[in-house]
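To: structure desk
From: M.T.
Subject: fold request, one chain
Message: Could you run this one when you get a chance? Sequence is below, nothing fancy, just the single chain.
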Amino acid sequence: MSAKIFVSYSRKDSKPARKLINAFAEMGYDVWVDWEDIPPATDWLEQVFRGIEGSDAFIFLVSPDSVKSNVCKAEIERADLNNKRIIPIVLREVPPADTHPVIRKLNWIFMRRGDDFQAALAKFRDALELDFEWVAEHNRIQADALKWHRGKDPSLLLRGSELRRVRKAVEAAMGREPKPTSLQEMFLRYSVQREKQRNILLAATIVIIAALAGLTFFANYQRSLAAENAELATRNAILANQQRDIAEANADLARRNEREARRAQQEAEDQRAIAEERARFALAQQSAARAQIYQAQPGELYTSTLLAIASWATAPSDESEEILRRNISLLPIPVKQTRREGAINSLNFDAQGNLFVVTGTDGNACVWKASDGEMLFCAPSPGSVNDAAFSPDGKLIVTGDESGLVQFIRVEDGETLYTYDAGGIVRDVDIRRNGDQVAITRDDGRITLLDAQTGKRKYDLQAFDRLKIASFSPNGRYIASGSVTGTVTLWNLVDGTIVSSGRHRGEVLALAFSPDSRYLITGGADGYAVAARTSNGQEVYRLLHEDWVTDIAVAPDSSWFATVSNDRRIRLWDTPDGGERLRMSQEGYVNEVKVSANGQWLATTGADRTVRVWNASTGAEMFQIPLEGEGLALGFSGDSGNLVTGDKTGEISLWDISVMPAPESYVQFDGLAGDVQFSPSGDWIAASDSNRVWLLRPGQSPTLTARSLGTPNLTLNGNVSDVVFSPDSVWLGVSTVNGQVLVYNLQTRQPKTLFQTGLGTQIAFTPDSVYLIACSANGSVEMWSLASLRKTADLAKAGSGVTSVAASPSHIALGATDRIAILAPDGEEVTEIQAPGDHALLAFNVDGSLLASANSAGLIEVWKFENGGFSRVGSIRKDSIHSLAFNPNGRTLAAGARNDVFLINPLTVREAARIPHAGNVSGVSYSADGNVMATASLKAIQFWVVPRIEDVDANELVNAACARLTTNFSQAQWSNFFGNEEYRTLCEGLPVP
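Reply: Done. Structure tokens follow.
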């Protein structure tokens, strides 16, 4: 007997399918196949299903197209439903995971291109003909069962000898394939039941006839038994009722046990979920803790950021968010990273700041674009290139190397125009600002002046010892050099005279002229920075450091200069008198310092493998950039938007630092800034330092100093703590830490001290500008009339615990420990907000719909006024808060803390952005239009353009952090931190080392 087989395939496999089907036919099999691969219609699909049901075996041709076909899927499921013998044959490779589950679990026969076709046919024949007689019997039973199932006609059921033969065949095939289908089992079961019913009916007929014959005989006997049976039935009924009660009780118990089992199962699942969540949270916290540790280690900010990303991705938390936001604020955007062979010796920009040249021990001087890091060319030298300089017009670079070779190279195409042999090591190269001369500093104590147009030697300047550095003055009148023994020599190039400018006890390591050419500042191994006048070489002052002074940079306006030292300090000094302005520190020797062209930023680098960028007005650390090795060289682009670094490993990196919040302008004071406020009218800015108050116009010069401000408008008896404008901008209120409270009429320019208690006082004006509210440290709160300048009411007595005050158009808020009292404008208490903490600071937004408080523990809370009461919106915890202010539109709350200003969304009470500062931010205020924010910290008031400050939503934290990284963790780093946890890339798009 030939087997009937059904072949399922994809239309795209027609060619190999025909080859197989022809082979099957030659083997004697009856093949059912549909050569028309058309969308299924009802009649067509029924015909296909009939073909499957009538077949002995179902052959599925596996390919990437057939596993995607919906028709093939339906055919597979029909064959599986009818328990057909299914044989998968692979035509083209497909991942098992992509196939239907029925196909995936079976053994496959491979007939791919390149496989042995005849051997595969032999395997197919063995698979198909195994126990063929049972397969045929199985198909006959299935056909009969389907015919019965469609019509449900009892006459189609099996009976008699045929039923016995089929049951015997099924029992004999027990455990073999194909197994009886559920339909076959039901068909046999109904056939058996039907046979039993016929037999019972026949037996019943015989019994009834016999019974009728004996009924008469037994009638009397049965009547006597009836009474006995009735009594027995009664007893049985009683017993049945008892058994029913027992059964119902057992059923209730079973239901209770089932409910208890379900509850226990649910509890177990809940506990498992809790355990998994705790494990995930513990893993996230472990990563956050490590991120915090690495955050404090120099050069490990990238590691810290990746660990924080891993923590946030596993289970977001306040800890990982704080680490990410802190790191994001400290990291610039990488533009380009490349590597040279050997350490970097020098890095210098052209005068326009558009190109930079890097020299190194690999014997090359390479020129790059500052905008995108594109390398224009590299000029090779026979020895390590120690220095290179651009001509003032940027068309030429001059290089000097260890072999003594000096090259003049055209920037346009990198062509060497001419060379000069210095005859010994070239230590330094400098070009005069007018572009006519090149100074070549030689190791033998001479400075050779070359003609920049021809490369020819003009003359030599002889110093007293071996030289390392030399420089022209910006005006071109002077050239100065420093020797290894500490001699500083200053030549007047106009008359050829030598002007001595001092001597160090040890090697001169740094030398810089002020941009106005009035001062020459040198630093040496003796730990001194010495300033001298260039006109006569006279020493003005010398500044002692704790170790070598390794580099010096002077501000563009010559008003200050910076020194860096092996004592790990960065110091800013006033140029005229050497007064120290600021002091910062790094974690290792500091090798180099540069000032940006706009004078706002200071960049330093050194042994701690970081580059730090500092705010030159406050000393705030704005960026901390990790390096591969010890930092040796750096420089700013001309627009101060990019920073270039070079380290000891030869890595050169270009960074976009324009993402850094930059103050539009600032006011520099001699003393510590106390507070700053914009008037509601927008006409005035009140600013204080120490015990003085200045009134400034918003349009005044963008950078001022206390010296240029002239006489202060007010001088008080102690350091100013608060300056506040009245809502109508007529009055200015001032309070001091010594308890003096003063009001100043902006129209009459008359000040008036209201009282002096010796206790610190917070002040606020009522919304109608009629009263001043004063809250003293002893808890007393007083209202003072601005018309009579007399006290008119006591809102709280001494000892009340009130420590802060704020006023809105409709309420007065008094902050005390664990509560905030809300008063009407007339002083009557309206309600009270219960909240833990001391509520040392309070602030309303402009319309009074939002109230913010901050306590000494750094907890900031926001309440919203609605439906006649205040409801809590949320809270956020930061470092100790020293100032609070809402933006006029009410969408931002600025919180001044130690070393930062946090910008918070008051409707979600989540951080949106932060601005690094130095020291306590004691004052923060917005302009009337909300476009400018003023902050007070250390000795400066800074003004920030609000629209330029980039918000970072919590959902964008990972993207913002990844944008500041250069690589993912390596496999080794991942294993070190996460053990056997499967490796994953934390930042998509970044390379894996």
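Reply (cont.): The chain has 13 helices and 64 strands. Let me know if you need anything else for the meeting.
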